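Gustatory receptor: structure tokens wanted.
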Amino acid sequence: EHCLTMSIQVPSVLRFHIRFFQVIGCFDASLSTQPTQQRIVEQRLVVWTFLLLLIFSMTTVNTILCPDAFLFTGNRFGYFNDMLKVCIAQITVFIIYTETVLGRYALRNFWQLYALLNQKAEKAEKLTTPKPHWPLQLCTYRRFLCIFYGITIFDIIIEILFHAMRPAGEDTMIVMRFWLMFTPYVYMAHWRNMQIILHIDVIRHELEKLRNDIALLAEYTRFARRVVPFVGFESFVRQKLAEKQLVFQHIYEMLYFFQRAFSVSTMAVLLMIYVRVVVDTYFMFFNDAVGWRFLENLLMLPAYLEIPSLLLTSQKCMNEVKFIAFELHNIRSSVDNSLISIQIQNFSLQ
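Answer:
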């Protein structure tokens, strides 16, 4: 318990996935609140990130120096396609790891704001449930968990089918060597995309809690209009609105730090997925005369799910803001109070 109080309070489900992202070098921020411990942990994480980047870079250099072992050299178009995918993958990994190192302060601020917003909830949970409430946490973040494990398991199944169904032959061995080399890059982009989705879902969850609180306040004010309100009711409503407005400001700051931590790598990941899809599609039509290569294109199926997953998660997050504005205008005072009306308008503009 003493160790937990020395770190930013994060639910166990989220903390588990943060640990995973630290293992793959995509999370260099320390959740410790002690400056010395924080600095030591972040230095180790940065060194680990640079080590992984060095391994990826050496793999890329080896692939470029030994094209016959990994790349399709049967014609220039196929060679160009494979080389383009490798170069884009290396650039993407470089951007991911560089932004991870440079954006660790923004990422730490993101989770500090998250802990600030959940302080009261954490205290209440400790009083009611001393142990981590896993079922509730799994339910809260079920959208992210379904996307993360659904696409990952689907990708692994596709990989197993590809290796099990591949025919014998020299061309097949080159394809196998290429995918054994290229697969870590694919998973790196996939997991970075999942990390982005996780942070968007965290913001969505905070917006959803705020929307529910404002909806309760709106329901309470509607009830108060039908009965005699207590003395100071108008001041109470204004105080609650100010509290919710401050919460929204903190969530907006979380969004700001999220953009600081992931903006460039988000574009890099989407570009890598786009290049993979376009290049393999063009190559498929180029080789239409020799027949459609089912197995190689089977490996593209998980990539088709990456962008829709990100877009749908973002859409869900943006819809919460729209619902918050709707609930705000359902708040009614017991009398026509211009101060409350102005405060609601300011909140809506915010």
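Residues 2-349 form one domain. The two ends are 38 Å apart (CA to CA).

Cheers.
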